[in-house]
Amino acid sequence: MSTTMQPSELESQLAALQDEAQEAIAQIDTLDALEQLRIKYLGKKGSLSQVLGSMGRLGAEDRPRIGSLANEVKEALQTSLENKRIALQAAAIEAKLAAETIDVTMPGVFRSQGRAHPLTSTVDRMIDIFVGLGYTVATGPEMETDYYNFEALNFQPDHPARDMQDTLFLPDGNLLRTHTSSVQIRYMEENDPPIRIVIPGRCYRRDTVDATHSAVFHQLEILAVDEGLTFSDLRGTLKVFLEAMFGDIEVRFRPSYFPFTEPSAEVDVRWKGRWLEVMGCGMVDPNVLKSVGYDPEVYTGFAAGLGVERIAMVLHQIDDIRRLYTSDLRFLRQF
User: What's the pLDDT tens digit per position in 8-19?
Assistant: First the structure.
């Protein structure tokens, strides 16, 4: 048979529990620890429930008063816990803001910038020169028809000049362009003279890869069509371009042959004590002008083309064209 408990004993236990809990709450510094403390004192099996479990041994006249006191203790602890939770949350937000604040006056983190590939930088340099001379950049498809790649450029179907270019034909009868000259035809079909265009692009030929040859390479061509253009205009334009690329150098023109120009010439520059072939050029053949609907009795034009890899190798003293395509960072970081 249980003994009767004195109200003063429970009052003392409730007061001690409240003091102990308040002190513990004041020392908590994390939300997780605060939740554990709430469970310890106010949970179903917590300290307050254990104290209230003894109320059954109180006299009937003391139970309401002790119950009211227990509720006051519970509410006081809940209030303290809630205030502490709010304070900890606010502190966590402040800490996060402080950690994530960016000082815009501080120097940024250095990240090394990439460098332009020597082919890209060479093409950009060439284009800048011709744009400065009033030329417009034009581009076209890399997969071409026989008409644009050969026929419209005065290559007859059985003409031996086709053997000058080992062509990669596709199963559908099309081909991978062997030069950027096909863009000249496409541009002239859609535009009336006067025109001045510079044409950079990738080309393809069936070739054995070695130190100076590649099956994939890049060309840059120019085309100008207007009334009264002469070979002297072509020569002056190319001399300005070559001096901008190589400096004050000797330039010479040698007679040559291309199906789409007449007369035609090879252009050499005197570089490091020897003559170096750098491009082909000539006056646009009247048959090419006729193929795009221009009257060769009214308009004349000139064209020139060069291999970008060859110029890049000369300017940067590169000994093997394959170095331009191996993606070797030790090589590329030099530029």
Answer: 777 777 788 788
